[in-house]
Known about the structure:
The complex is a heterodimer of chains A (143) and B (357).
Chain A: H1 2-7, H2 10-34, H3 39-53, H4 76-95, H5 104-142
Chain B: H1 12-27, H2 29-34, H3 37-40, H4 42-46, H5 54-61, H6 68-71, E1 85-86, H7 91-101, H8 105-118, H9 135-153, E2 173-174, H10 183-205, H11 215-243, H12 251-257, H13 279-282, H14 311-321, H15 347-353
Antiparallel strand pairs in B: 1-2
Amino acid sequence: MENLLSNASPHSETLIEERGKRIKLAAEVGLARSSGGRLWARALRRRLHRQRKLPQQTCIAKNSTPPLMKEVPLVADVTEEKEEVQDRMRALQRLVPGGEEMEVERLFEETADYIEALQEQVGVMRALACLLDGIESTDGDKL
Amino acid sequence: MAPCTDPSSPTPSDLSILEKQKIYLNQHQKQYLNQSAYNSNFSPFLAFKPIVDEKSSIASGQVYDPINSLINGWPDFSMVSSTSLITENIKKRKGESNASLKAENSSIIEEGGDSNKKMKHVTCNDSHERNANTKEGNRKGKNKKEITTEDSKDNTKDSETSTDTAKPDYIHVRARRGQATDSHSLAERVRRERISERMRYLQELVPGCDKVTGKAGMLDEIINYVQSLQRQVEFLSMKLAAVNPTVDFDIDDFINRQMIPTNAGCLPLSNVLNNQLDPSFLQFNPLQRPAACYGLEMPIENPNPAFNGSMPEQVSASDTLGDQYLSVNYSSSNWDIGQQNLYCIDPQQARTLGFPF
Lengths: 143, 357
C-alpha cells in the first residue's frame, strides 16, 4: 500500500483519501446496522445520518451531554485512584458511540458488544483487502 | 424471536437442564459461601462467549440467564446464616431468553445483558421454593422501584417484556454473612457485582487484559484496544481505496435506496473471518463468467439481531447462481458488519460491469 501511495500523484492521493472516507463510511453504516438493538449502534447511525445530511458539519458534538455520574470518593487516599478510573471511564465514553449517556453498567455492556462488532468488521475488511490484493496480482499476471 | 407463549411451564429440556444446574450449583454451594460476589458471578459470564466451556455449557443449554443459574441453588442455601432474601421472578424474561438462545450467539449477549439490567437475580418461578420473610415486603417496593427505573432505561428489548406476568416481580439477592442487609447496600452490592461481571467479560474480549491488574489498568487496555480497532478500520478502508481504484461506495445511494449501491464494484464475496481465503477465489477469472452474478445477495435491512439464522438461506441462494461461486462461509457470530454494503448484488449490472478489476 505504501508503494501505491508513494507512486501516486498528489491528485490521486486525494482521491484515494476521499474514496477511503467513503469506504469507511460504508463500513460504519454496515457496522451500525449489524446490531440494531444496541445503543451504540443507534448512536452511530444517528451520527452517520447527521454527517450525511450536513456534510460540512464534520465536527459532531459528541461531548455535549454531561459525563456520567461517578461515585464521589469518600476517602482521600482513594481519590487519586478513583480519579484515574473516572478519567478512563470518560475516555471510554467518548470512544464508544453514544457512550456519553450511559451509566457504567450499560457502558461496559455496550463496549463489549462494540468491540466484538469492530473485530468482525476488521476481519471482514482485512479479508476483502487480501482478496482484492490477490485478485489484482492474479490479473496482473494474466495481462 | 419466537415469543414464549407459556413461560410458566418450561419445556422438558429446560427442566432437565435446570435440574442439572441445580445439581451443579449444589456441588458448588460451599464455594459460593466463601467466595466473593465476584467469583460467584463469574460462571454466568462465561456463558456469554460463543465458545462453550465447561461452566457455560450447563447454562447455555438452557437459555442463558446469568443470574438464573445461581438462583437455582439459592433455595438450598438454607444453611447460610444470613437470610435476607428478596425474590424476584421475571418469568417473561426467562421465556424470552429461552427463545433467544435458540437464535444466534449474537443475540445472547444482548439478552443476557438485558437480563442483567432487568433484574438483580431471576428465579425459576415454579421449580424452586422461595424463602420469603417479612422484611421482603419492605424491600419489594424499593426493588420494584429500582427495577422499573432500570426498565425505563432499557429500551432495547422493551417490546418483549410485555408478555405475561400476573405475579409481581421479585429480585433474589443473597446477602452474605456480616454484610449489611438494608436495601440500599443490597442494591449497591448487586450493582457492583454486575459491573464486575461485565468487567470480566471485557477482560476476556480484550487480549492481554489478564496480565493487567487494577481497574484503571484494565480500562486502559480496553480503551487502547477499542482505539486500535477503530484505527484498523480506518487504515483498512484507506487500503481498500488504494488497492482497488474502482472500489467505491455511494453511501447516499445506498442509504436512500436501502439497497446495495449500484455503482459499487461487484465483488466476490467470501466471509473469511480469519483470512482463510479459498485459493480458488484468486484464480477466478471474471472474463469467463460475465453473466454470473458475482456478488452475494445480502439483506441490507436486517436489524434483527438474530438474523444470522437467515444466513444459510442466503448461502443457498448464492449457490444457485453459479457453481464457481465463492463459497460463503457464514460463521455463527455476527460477521456481517461491513459486508452488507461492501458487496454489490445486481445480476444485470454484473453482466455489464463484469469484474471491476
